Amino acid sequence: MQTVRTDPIDGQKPGTSGLRKKTAVFKRPRYLENYVQSTFDGIDGVQNKTLVVGGDGRFFNDAAIQIILRMAAANGAAKCIVGQGGILSTPAVSHLIRLRKADGGLILSASHNPGGPDADFGLKYNGANGGPATETVTDKIFARTTEIETYRIAAGDDIDLERIGDTQIGSMQVEIVDPVADYAELMGSLFDFAKIRALFASGFTMRFDAMHAVTGPYAHAILEDTLGAAKGTVMNGVPSPTFGGGHPDPNPIWAKSLMDIMYGADAPDFGAASDGDGDRNMIVGRGAYVTPSDSLAVLTAKAHLAPAYKDGLAGVARSMPTSRAVDRVAESLGIGCFETPTGWKFFGNLLDAGKVTLCGEESAGTGSDHVREKDGLWAVLLWLNILAETKLSVADLMADLWSTHGRCYYSRHDYEEVESEKANAMVDGLRAKLPSLAGSTIGKLRVETADEFAYDDPVDGSRSSNQGIRIVFKGGARVVFRLSGTGTQGATIRIYLEQLVTDADRLHMEPESALEMVRAAALQLSELTAKTGWVDPDVVT
Ligand code: VG1
Ligand code: CO
Hints:
Layout: E1 2-5, E2 19-22, H1 23-26, H2 31-42, E3 50-55, H3 61-74, E4 79-87, H4 90-99, E5 104-108, E6 120-126, H5 135-145, E7 150-153, E8 165-169, E9 172-177, H6 181-190, H7 193-201, E10 206-209, H8 215-226, E11 234-235, H9 256-263, E12 270-274, E13 281-285, E14 288-290, H10 292-302, E15 315-319, H11 325-333, E16 336-340, H12 345-352, E17 358-361, E18 365-368, H13 376-390, H14 394-405, E19 407-418, H15 420-433, E20 441-442, E21 445-452, E22 455-456, E23 463-464, E24 469-473, E25 477-483, E26 491-501, H16 511-514, H17 516-526, H18 528-532, E27 539-540
Parallel strand pairs: 3-4, 3-5, 4-9, 10-11, 10-12, 15-16, 15-17
Antiparallel strand pairs: 1-7, 2-6, 5-6, 8-9, 12-13, 13-14, 17-18, 19-26, 19-27, 20-21, 21-24, 22-23, 24-25, 25-26
Helix pairs in contact: 2-3, 2-5, 7-13, 10-11
């Protein structure tokens, strides 16, 4: 065991989910070590604790795990449970923490951000409920990064992460587990696998794009080996340290090859993709892309068709920028609908308190009370269960949702790597205008309410302020402005556009034209171009 003298680091306050930095920053001497020690200190030490450790397989995953294990040993942890090869998806970590009653877990991932020596790395801590660290814990970890003086690490050789079974580092036990088995069993307990197997046996076809990221082994085992989907259903199914040089973000831009298949001749019945760490999902039918907000609404409307949710839902929650489609479904079901700040950590209390069963975000995250993270494959399996029960196509299910509840046209525009001062100036400008906006007319739209979202947690009473600027217009339009908390360079401005349409003859328009008026109003209000010099977004989803 060694105690190494060290200095405070520019840890930066961990963002929407953990700390993300360029890989080169994490590889600086003592950087990872300082952050890991700060994390251990921030959770009041790991003495006699059991931790789950795993990551999405990106560059530096395995080397970082060896350091974390030796530090856990030197800090007195009783045991670490590690995915074979260092691999565990985010939802699989969440499940393992809960299943094994561990004290917490460390997930090595920068999620959908690219991986590699010149790309991004990340580390997040999840607590004993399996969910992301709360704001309070995050603040404590951050505080330690600014005052840290020493870290502890055990000497010794690397351990073999490939060999399933038990080893020791000093007096700490290390158990290497199959990353897929427990997760697959959980999925089998939630869904009607026999029905889904029968669906595939009847000729139903699917493509699942694992994007060279962590869900490959999970999707092979569950979709192909267990449910009988044809070999080749899973594409890009082997995790790669650089995600095949790609950007493992499941949206129509970065999963374009899947989109081309789904909109091409001979498209399969169903398509889906997941992200770097396996917590996001994209759903697309034959020629029918489903926005994540609409997906949450459909799943809410039909979840009772799957065994785990047959008695109905306690309630649902969505992040504030997520479209209000699910609110309309929840209202018709007579269940509660909560609006939380962006990021999964805010759903944890609602799930733990039994107030909600399903949660979702516009950024392709959907999940339920089976774990405390969003869960990409879970969402895909719930869709499959619903398709198997209803025998409808994805396009039919969408048309049904829209004709019953109206359609919330939706789009997010991202402006990436904007200079931070300019992005902040834009937000400050908007903030200053808020008090005088209600009742005014912007372009062709009349403002109903304008505010900056603050969240009062109904369970623990904590307040989270400055969670995005939202402007609601008469006639069902809304725009939200926020700065990303997951980027590693400059600022990313996100503009979220929404327009509700209930006229039967306007339910199948191009989203761009349905959103034209609210987009114009958003640009006028924010003075985006004048304030930042930007005109067109980098990514539109
Ligand atoms: C983004 C998404 C947010 C999500 C977060 C983490 O955050 O907008 O909805 O919870 O990523 O997801 P931001 O602050 O950049 O908008 V993941 O899959 O990266 O863990
Ligand atoms: Co993710």
